[in-house]
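Consider this record:
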Amino acid sequence: MIVANGVPYVVDCGDGVARQLVLADVPLPALRHIFITHQHSDHTADYGNLMWLAWAAGLRTRIDTWGPPPLDEMTRLFFQMNAADINTRIADEGRVCVLELELDGALRVQEEVPGSVTIFIAAPVEELERRLRERATESTGEIGDRITLARRQLEQAHRFRYMVRNDDVHRATEVLTAIVERELVLGTAPTGTIRVR
């Protein structure tokens, strides 16, 4: 683990990682980033448990996770396996769990987790291309691949409960906030966020 500016960055999640963080006086709700270097059990055994324990301990912010495939599938299966506990905490404690997933993972959660709410967030393809070119962090070929993927994913937007057009970040944030607040009032939204990359 690396701590920078008070934020813990966990590299790999072998057996007992949550216990070791607590012993090192790192509060689990402070967790923000998890990096998985490769898919061996001594690096992933407590990946799901670390996120779940942080959430159960009061996590109120997003956790970004990075790692090789099948990290998205591992995350989905972990939360599916623990759905009974998560749903009980949501009902009994008013807790909320927000997952930021790629397209396939989000659609699986929608299908398999009763009461889940899905939101497709996308910039218009032209805007996405402009942003990618302006950033200048990817080659022309990589940008082309990203645009092709964005077009394919956009074709699936109708399968989500909501779609937020991200052509203006301020407006998109307001719309997303309104959706989340509405779902919280309705009591249907399954507060910590897990983002899988």
User: Anything to note?
Assistant: Strands lie at 2-4, 7-11, 33-35, 62-66, 98-100, 119-122, 162-165, 193-196.
